[in-house]
Amino acid sequence: MLNVVRQDIITAGTAVNAARTAVTSAGTAVVPVANAGTAVNLEDVSKVFTQWQRSGKFKDLLRNLVKPEKKVVAALDHVSLKVNNGEFVAYAGANGAGKSTTIKILSGILQPTSGAVTVLGMSPEKSRVELMRRIGVVFGQRTELWWDHPISVSFEWKKTVWNIPAEVYRHQLEMVTELLDLGDLLNTFARELSLGQRMRADLAMMLLHNPELIFLDEPTLGLDVLAKRQMINFLKRINREQGTTIIVTSHDMDDLEEMAQRIVLLSRGQIAFDGSFDELRQLTGNLCRIRLVFQGAGMEAGTGAGAGLQTGAAQSQGRMADLMNGGDGGRSVRLLAANGNSCEYEFDTAEVPVNVMLRQIALLDGIVDIEIRKAPIEQIVAELYTKWRG
């Protein structure tokens, strides 16, 4: 289907939206899109797939051919979503929740079974060619690069076929080459790239026509730590400086929290949450973690609270145990791990505010170091997934 979209673009052979360039005394410069209005609007959208069910038994061979069973699967179930221009939205969910289906509907690759879809004021189904000139799409498992050619050839191909103005192409190519560190890769064949390098090259190619709206499906897939950092910083920059609207899906919740201002969580084809990451954390009680390092040999992994501690540290550990078992915080403080001379606790700031916890710790003896942080966002999302699945 992606090849069909590409063929539509080739057939059209029309210019990229000229409204995204402005002539200045220095030449032609790319200007941001105005952050006003709605970029994406889904109204009561559903998408149903039919799956044929076939038995693997020899005796059922004839029935599989003549009268196979079919199963109806609702990938999206009455989804309504609005994304404004300039937003950076994380679109997440468990496997099979409907994330990729949504991206394909928004980019015109799939049509919804029911409901209304508007992207940049257009219908993806009716205005797919025109829409593709104003959006960009990257799927982590697929590539648009020419496999047996240097990636610079793929870039030039897009410039020619899409009729990208020379100044826009030059500006965008310089930007993506620098920020995505592609300088040494431009003359490398696509088939010789690592997965992370290919992802960066695909992202660069997608941005050559300076799209107003981009959809990214698992953009950090397979990236090492440095490449992932470059990718995240780059996406945040084009969102901030160029006003590009970004909708990104990923299973790495830490990446999403760092990139996006808003998160939409899907569960079984329906929107289960839509809000900020702070609001998401509040659903499970604003959990925080605190790590205490005690003086002395401390606790051995797997032992009970207070075991093996020197006198002062043992008393401190005992007071923490009291707090866990009915002290000022009731049972809202729990021991997560004890290893060597350190212990890690989790507590709910709604029941035990951070200042109260710190006052309690200040009264303890034998503590040489304290580290406090929010609970990992992946833990919170995993708890919500489990709850929603029932």
Summary of the model, kept short:
The chain is an alpha/beta fold. The protein contains 13 helices and 15 strands. 34% of the residues lie in helices and 28% in strands.
Write the layout of secondary structure elements.
Layout: H1 2-12, E1 21-24, E2 27-30, E3 38-53, H2 61-66, E4 69-84, E5 88-93, H3 99-106, E6 114-119, H4 128-132, E7 135-139, H5 151-161, H6 166-179, H7 195-206, E8 213-217, H8 225-242, E9 245-249, H9 253-259, E10 262-267, E11 270-275, H10 277-282, E12 287-294, H11 311-324, E13 333-339, E14 342-348, H12 354-362, E15 367-374, H13 377-389
Parallel strand pairs: 5-9, 5-10, 7-8, 8-9
Antiparallel strand pairs: 1-2, 3-4, 3-6, 10-11, 12-14, 12-15, 13-14
Describe the structure.
Helix content is 34%, strand content 28%. It is of the alpha/beta class. The chain folds into 2 domains: 274 residues, P-loop containing nucleotide triphosphate hydrolases (Rossmann fold, 3-Layer(aba) Sandwich); 97 residues, Alpha-Beta Plaits (2-Layer Sandwich). It has a 6-stranded mixed beta sheet with strand order 7-8-9-5-10-11, sandwiched between helices. Strands 13-14-12-15 form a 4-stranded antiparallel beta sheet, covered by helices on one side. Strand 8, helix 8 and strand 9 form a beta-alpha-beta unit. It is globular, with a radius of gyration of 26 Å. The N terminus is likely disordered.
